[in-house]
Design goal:
Distance between the termini: 43 Å
Shape: globular
Number of helices: 13
Number of strands: 13
Radius of gyration: 22 Å
Strand content: 15-25%
Strand order of the largest sheet: 4-5-13-10-11-12
Helix content: 40-55%
Order of helices and strands: HHEEEHEHEHEHEHEHEHEHEHEHHE
Structural class: alpha/beta
């Protein structure tokens, strides 16, 4: 079924609106002044900017050299410093006047304190969890933030079919399929059998959900295959049949997809202010690199100096750190931001992968059980479970200073637990 572009307001606003949304979410700073020292800077209050938006007078919003520049369609430009009370109101006005019902992530996910888990850990640190497992989309998870932008791009281009790839129990594939169904689009999956013989069409977990959600086709390829090439073959076949396919790379880990986690970092910053929290460290799963890269880019853009430690789930440390560093800078390029990510800001340990991607470890099992038994929160066995095992081990080794508040990003994925039942019995 082709999407009804006439009734889909996302096509009206298109990709440009969503990129602007990420821009305004990303680079708002702490309020410090409502007055302007330069005669070239004009104070613009909330009501004025809201009126401009409602009258369709705003052409674009850019950030350069420490200032936001609003360009009106009549050619007038207004420069506004970031560090002003009015700046926050102005850009939330811009965000609020877009058609929010067409955006997947409309409310912040909670930041929850985990006192029982922290006590059980016994490392004299306080653990908090950013609950992105509670994002919308079938069974939730971090990929929704990235697909918010990628699916918008597909619709803007008039595509009627989505193709993506992942492992045989891919959370990304589940959520891509979920949002394709939501938009009335077909979805075809290319699954990489990274562990030989691991694909079972009768398996539980995400593999069951692929069938339940009505996937149009599943192509299984051997581990190490060129996944883009495999997806392009599916796209060529569909194009010959008269379809208009759109390829979402694995994990939606592109500069466009990483915008979702630039926005997430801005969301976290505002929650910190509202909750009166100051985090000393942040721990994130690091797989296809988009989530980790977006968080880092968001930190740089917001001048937040919280150390971020990634826990890798597949690639060697140097390879993963390079992938994250490159993608973070590409994301800043997409936003037109001149600042660069220092290489030393990117850390992604590979000590917790175990025998290989998706293969269970005793430490992962301990982490999943420990959080479930102390806080009633479910992790997944491939990403968040191994990432939490990394946090636990690092805490026990004194990696975090005593008394630290550590924020863990929960990327979701609990449906995959049901494909790993023997590990937990």
């Amino acid at each position: 079924m082709k999407p009804d572009k006439g009734n889909n307001k996302r096509n009206t606003f298109g990709l440009i609106t969503l990129i602007l949304w990420a821009l305004v979410l990303t680079f708002l700073f702490r309020s410090c002044s409502s007055s302007y020292a330069s005669a070239n800077e004009v104070q613009v209050d909330y009501s004025t900017f809201k009126e401009w938006v409602q009258q369709d007078k705003v052409d674009r919003v850019l950030m350069q050299s420490g200032k936001y520049t609003i360009t009106l369609k009549e050619g007038v430009t207004v420069e506004v410093p970031e560090q002003t009370n009015s700046t926050s109101s102005i850009f939330y006005s811009w965000m609020g006047n877009q058609d929010r019902e067409t955006v997947y992530v409309t409310t912040p996910t909670p930041i929850e304190h985990c006192p029982n888990f922290s006590k059980a850990l016994g490392a004299d640190i306080d653990v908090y969890i950013k609950r992105d497992d509670m994002l919308p989309g079938t069974a939730g998870g971090n990929k929704t933030r990235k697909l918010d932008f990628c699916i918008a791009d597909a619709l803007q281009k008039g595509c009627d079919t989505v193709i993506t790839c992942g492992a045989v129990q891919s959370n990304h594939c589940r959520l891509t399929l979920s949002w394709a169904v939501h938009e009335g689009m077909d979805c075809h999956l290319v699954l990489e059998e990274r562990v030989k013989g691991s694909y079972n069409p009768e398996a539980s977990g995400n593999n069951f959900l692929f069938q339940l959600l009505g996937v149009k086709s599943i192509t299984v390829v051997p581990g190490g295959s060129n996944m883009m090439e495999a997806m392009e073959k599916v796209a060529a076949k569909l194009t010959a049949e008269g379809r208009k396919p759109y390829i979402v790379p694995g994990g939606a880990s592109t500069p466009l997809g990483a915008l979702g986690y630039v926005g997430c970092m801005e969301e976290i910053m505002h929650q910190m202010f509202e909750m009166g929290l100051n985090f000393d460290h942040m721990v994130v799963p690091s797989g296809s690199a988009g989530t980790h890269a977006g968080i880092i880019a968001g930190m740089i853009g917001n001048n937040i100096n919280i150390p971020v430690t990634g826990i890798g789930v597949n690639r060697p440390k140097p390879v993963q750190e390079n992938a994250v560093h490159t993608l973070a800078n590409q994301t800043l390029d997409l936003l037109g931001v001149e600042a660069r990510v220092p290489a030393e800001k990117v850390v992604a340990f590979d000590d917790y992968v175990g025998p290989g991607y998706s293969l269970p470890t005793d430490a992962m099992v301990e982490a999943v059980k420990m959080l479930a038994e102390t806080e009633g929160i479910l992790l997944d066995p491939v990403y968040s479970g191994k990432a939490m095992s990394g946090l636990i081990d690092l805490a026990r080794k004194g990696y975090f200073a005593k008394g630290s508040k550590v924020l863990f990003l929960h990327t979701g994925g609990s449906p995959a637990l049901y494909a790993y039942l023997p590990c937990f019995r």
